[in-house]
Design brief:
By secondary structure, this protein is mainly α. It is about 60% helix and about 5% strand. Strand 3, helix 9 and strand 4 form a beta-alpha-beta unit. It is a multi-pass membrane protein.
Length: about 850
């Protein structure tokens, strides 16, 4: 087999050409696939409402605003049950509902459930696209605000000369021109590890913003103004608490109480102002999205889409307190509406939203008929531009229940018929709000197909020398995997397929009669580690109870820390064993006394470096996992070393790893013997670095890597080693490792809790890099492990991995194109395509082919 391998190696030029072609096809496909919703040109003039009223009701009066003052408070990731549920700590909010001074809703947020798209929906009433979720993480200065030429209630307020003040998430300042605001103070939304300052930087302005006129006159101009018509606040701390510890975090109750106190302060101030000037004020409390039980968001589960919405006013007195409405989901309480329905309820705009009847009836009952007419007219214009006049006529007939009814007949019919039309029109718009650029989409798809054919040719010759059993086994597994992309449920639950493939493949190898008992034992242990992966994380998007081991461990912090302690000693033991073996090998070469002293000193330095990185890593995890009674002495010791904060510890770990790698690489260039121990030490330092970037509950999973690494190494040392089998195992270990860490094909599984280790300020490039390292730590380790295999076996294995990733990308692109008008196109296929881009571009090209080669090169 070895001789055949050396003759069958394809050229590096062909390999590069295939990768470049796949990247070009991917770029074209992404340009055409990720949809952009076409906005209707123009804005909604203030006169539209009065004109509509007079058109359909000759006796209608001129418009008079129901409210002249608005306080709009966004609490990031405020799930409906956080505000209204039985376990909520927002007592004042609940008291407003109980007294009839507020109307509670569950506002359903459409995917993608991340901040920028949801702010777009909350202010413009339009349905965001998946591309908005990508733009959400790009915090760069732009020459103009994104929504300067888009209709929104913020623009309407600004054009009417309202005094608008803002404090909070600076995403607002990237969406709307600063000229529209009389005063602003933005805070970065991406420093997830901060749960305190990010909110106190907003609350510190409340004393000035809520001051009386006389108090305001005594303050200097540096303070926030007390005179305003629209107050917008966006708090981020609750979302950050969720990212770090989930909805059951010990910090969550106090954070809810903090937000509740903010709402109470603002509401009391609105009462005072209304009593002083006789005007009417409205308080809107809204969450932009919810969060999963893991604390993340971005997908389309009920936990992520069920956001809280509260409309409160000192002038509101409902007939009776609003009782909680029973729903099948515990995340949805009271009346359920679409989140975009808030926009036309506040103002008549160029949006897809429909009025919330219960809010209009309670806040301004006399205006319901005119408001409905204006809302119908507005949705007619949007739907006509999107689907054509024929679609409008068809929906009007369906809503009126009369095949001969026209739009004018509908507007003269009952309120119920108009409500039905609004519902039908909104459903139609939400279902068809995406458009695709077919030329780049099909062009990219065609290029990907040719790239796949070229990729298969890379391993055609070596494939012929594989055993028949290997060709059938690997071939069937590949066909089954590619076929899974044509079913949404398989895409959502991809982890189940990989757990099966990985464990089954290892067991089939273990029962081969030519394997020794030690090889069989290693393979069986590797299969068991994959079974542990399956039980460790709560993956997927199906509604199943969370019985994962990681959840159980979160209830026992002492046990969690004990496992972390063991996990950190595993690479230490591996490093010491490698050094001891190298020392014995060196001793057999009969060195001189000077050589022995120098080599012993070198080994001692490396042992100390590994030990230092172990200590730093354990210290980093102490605050979340170590028992409180054990933190005191360690904290004092770290303080003496000026390592008493997470930022300093992270940087210390980076420096130790960097120094160790530089010395190992220098020794490699000096061509000193014994390459094996240097590769092992490089792998040890990399694993310790990635452990420090892994969520504490997942650190024990790194132990499984060393078992799997040993299994791959033993297979590679066999005389009949098969590159196809090795490629299959590496792909399986990388995939199961990713899913074992909690990953999935949903944006909600992206873990940001470790993306700021060592950073004192936000940097898009560094945060993106750390996010990749923390979410793909196990796949990265297997990439490095692959490069410990000697050539030519390593090169042939990599050339099997290139066709695998190219075929997977092409199959998913074909499926996404075929089902581009599917109900789940935005919620399933779009994030799956993005993840597949990461697997091909970052995991395979960036790590398998480039980074791992640079790190492990000797």
């Amino acid at each position: 087999m070895r001789a055949s391998q050396s003759r069958a190696r394809p050229s590096r030029t062909a390999h590069v050409a295939v990768v470049v072609a796949a990247l070009a096809g991917l770029a074209c496909f992404a340009r055409g696939f990720f949809p952009v919703k076409p906005l209707l040109a123009g804005f909604s003039p203030a006169q539209d409402y009065a004109q509509t009223s007079r058109r359909y009701d000759a006796g209608a009066s001129e418009r008079s605003d129901a409210f002249s003052r608005l306080a709009f408070v966004v609490v990031d990731a405020l799930r409906a049950d956080f505000a209204f549920g039985p376990n909520s700590h927002m007592t004042f909010v609940q008291s407003l509902v109980d007294s009839g001074e507020a109307l509670p809703y569950t506002a359903v947020a459409q995917a993608p459930t991340v901040t920028l798209p949801r702010l777009k929906a909350l202010t413009t009433g339009s349905n965001p696209t998946f591309l908005d979720s990508i733009l959400n993480v790009v915090e760069e200065s732009v020459t103009s605000a994104a929504f300067e030429r888009v209709d929104s209630w913020v623009r309407q307020m600004a054009m009417q000369g309202k005094k608008i003040v803002f404090a909070g998430d600076d995403t607002w300042l990237r969406l709307f021109p600063k000229e529209w605001f009389n005063w602003t103070d933005g805070v970065s939304s991406f420093f997830v590890s901060d749960t305190v300052t990010v909110d106190t930087n907003v609350t510190r302005h409340l004393d000035s913003l809520l001051a009386s006129a006389t108090e305001s006159e005594r303050r200097d101009s540096a303070h926030a103004p007390a005179e305003w018509d629209v107050l917008i606040l966006h708090y981020l701390g609750l979302d950050h608490v969720g990212h770090l510890g989930g909805p059951r975090s010990p910090l969550m109750p106090s954070k809810q109480q903090e937000m509740d106190q903010v709402v109470e302060r603002i509401y009391r101030d609105l009462e005072r102002r209304d009593a002083e000037d006789g005007q009417r004020s409205l308080l809107v409390l809204v969450g932009d999205h919810g969060m999963t039980e893991g604390g993340n968001h971005g997908g389309s589960t009920e936990a992520e889409t069920s956001a809280a919405l509260l409309l409160a006013s000192p002038n509101l007195r409902t007939k009776a307190p609003v009782p909680p409405t029973r729903h099948a989901s515990s995340y949805r309480l009271h009346e359920v509406i679409q989140q975009i329905d808030l926009v036309p309820t506040l103002a008549v705009l160029n949006s897809m939203g429909k009025l919330v009847p219960s809010a209009v009836e309670a806040l301004r009952p006399a205006a319901l008929a005119q408001a409905l007419a204006a809302n119908v007219r507005q949705l007619v214009e949007v739907l006509s531009a999107s689907a054509g006049v024929a679609a409008v006529d068809q929906l009007a007939k369906e809503a009126a229940g009369n095949s001969n009814a026209s739009l004018a007949d509908l507007l003269r019919s009952s309120i119920e018929a108009q409500h039905e039309f609004l519902r039908l029109a909104q459903d139609r718009l939400l279902a068809s709000s995406s458009s695709y650029q077919l030329f780049p989409l099909y062009s990219g798809l065609l290029i990907l197909v040719f790239a796949s054919i070229g990729a298969l040719s890379l391993c055609q010759r070596v494939w012929q020398v594989e055993t028949k059993q290997t060709r059938w086994t690997v071939g069937l597994a590949l066909v089954a995997y590619l076929g899974s992309f044509f079913a949404t449920s398989f895409i959502e639950e991809e982890h189940e397929l990989w757990y099966f493939f990985g464990a089954t493949g290892l067991v089939l190898l273990a029962i081969r009669p030519t394997f020794s008992w030690t090889e069989r034992l290693t393979l069986i242990l590797a299969a068991a580690s994959i079974r542990i992966y399956r039980s460790w994380a709560h993956n997927g998007q199906k509604n199943v109870p969370n019985t994962s081991l990681s959840l159980v461990l979160s209830l026992y912090p002492r046990l969690t820390f004990a496992l972390i302690l063991i996990s950190y000693f595993v690479p230490l033991i591996v490093a010491l064993s490698a050094l001891a073996q190298a020392s014995r090998t060196f001793a057999r070469s009969r060195p001189t006394v000077g050589q022995a002293i120098a080599k012993s000193a070198t080994f001692a330095v490396f042992a100390v470096l590994v030990a230092m990185q172990v200590v730093v890593g354990l210290a980093m995890h102490r605050t979340r996992s170590m028992p409180e009674d054990a933190q005191g002495s360690l904290a004092k010791a770290l303080e003496k070393l000026d390592l008493d904060n997470a930022e300093a510890l992270s940087r210390a770990g980076y420096w130790i790893c960097g120094v160790a790698w530089a010395v190992l690489r220098l020794m490699s260039h000096r061509a000193e013997g014994g390459q094996s121990w240097r590769s092992t030490l490089t792998l040890v330092h990399a694993s310790l670095l990635l452990m420090s970037l892994t969520r504490p509950a997942n650190v024990p999973l790194i132990c499984a890597f060393w078992i799997q690494h040993e299994a791959v190494s033993r297979l590679a040392r066999r005389a009949d080693a098969s590159p196809a089998q090795l490629a299959f195992l590496v792909a399986a270990f990388q995939a199961t490792g990713f899913f074992g860490l909690g990953g999935s094909n949903s944006l909600a599984s992206v873990d940001l809790s470790q993306a700021y280790n060592g950073l004192s300020s936000y940097s898009f490039a560094l945060v993106s890099l750390l996010t990749y390292f923390s979410n793909f730590s196990l796949p990265i380790l297997h990439s490095l492990s692959l490069h410990t295999i000697p050539n030519p076996l390593r090169s042939l294995t990599l050339r099997y991995l290139t066709p695998f990733h190219t075929l997977a990308l092409t199959a998913l692109a074909l499926s996404a194109t075929w089902f581009r008008y599917h109900l789940f196109s935005l919620t399933v296929f779009a994030p799956a395509v993005l993840y597949r881009v990461v697997w091909f571009g970052l995991v395979h090209l960036g790590t398998n082919l480039i980074l791992a080669r640079l790190v492990m090169s000797g």
